[in-house]
Amino acid sequence: MSLIEFSSFVSDLATHSGRAILPFFRTALSVGDKSSGADFDPVTEADRAGESVMRHMIRQHFPGHGIIGEEFGSENDEAEYVWVLDPIDGTRAFMSGLPLWGTLIGLTHHGKPGFGMMHQPFIGERFSGDGGAAHYQGPHASRTLITRDCPDIGGATLMATTPDMFTGNAADAFARVQAKARLTRFGCDCYAYCMVAAGHVDLVIENGLKPYDIVALIPIIEGAGGIVTSWDGGDPTRGGAIIAAGDRRVHEQALALLAGR
């Protein structure tokens, strides 16, 4: 079964997880803290409900597949096919009543991201890609996603979820890029990456990501013509320090600045 043939099942995962999550949005939901006394790391009943639904569907339809999820950990993660799930990427926005969050559904084959979707059920938007092409489906239109040209970092729009994710040398590295970019915006979590794919943002630079934060987004950005790597230009699949760009030229310039060159 090719990765693209999983697209219908991914769509079903998005639909059912959305139905599980939405009843909690903009309500007096219960919020927990996974940080064990460190920086606040929220988790909600909605996160658990969304991931539980997806895990049940995957086990039922593809019992030999592995799963890596933010809320319930890993199972059979050495399998040929592994699902990488983040039921609510942007939990802080979710708990604040802002629709700048999404459900991330990624599928790897032999460890390589091959298909991904970001679903925003409140707005009714879906961004998907297989590394070769990427698509948008919204309440009023559907279209192919294509990144925009940005030959020079001086004309770039740069995004990151929060400046708090950069400390020490990482803060200095991000500041070098920010000083050159035309515009910097914070917030949006997974939406920032989808805006790169849609041609509205040029760069996303982040630090401290987990695999479930990025795996689903890689095939979307690459399918739209962009590039995603680690800060040293390596494989982004395991997370960590990540840079996504719509144009390879601005990606190269940003990498050099991150490295202090």
Can you lay out the helices and strands and say which pair or pack?
Blueprint: H1 7-21, E1 31-33, E2 42-44, H2 45-61, E3 66-69, E4 73-75, E5 81-89, H3 91-95, E6 102-109, E7 112-120, E8 125-129, E9 134-137, E10 142-144, E11 157-160, H4 168-180, E12 183-186, H5 190-198, E13 203-209, H6 211-214, H7 218-223, E14 227-230, E15 240-245, H8 248-258
Parallel strand pairs: 3-5, 11-12, 11-13
Antiparallel strand pairs: 1-2, 3-4, 5-6, 6-7, 7-8, 8-9, 9-10, 13-15, 14-15
Fold and architecture overview:
Helices cover 31% and strands 29% of the residues. It contains eight helices and 15 strands. The chain has 261 residues and is α+β, with helices and mostly antiparallel strands. The strands form three sheets. Strands 4-3-5-6-7-8-9-10 form an eight-stranded mixed beta sheet, with helices on both faces. The longest helix has 17 residues, at 45-61. α4 links the parallel β11 (157-160) and β12 (183-186). It has two domains: 3-144, Fructose-1,6-Bisphosphatase, Chain A, domain 1 (2-Layer Sandwich), CATH 3.30.540; 153-258, D-Maltodextrin-Binding Protein, domain 2, CATH 3.40.190.80.
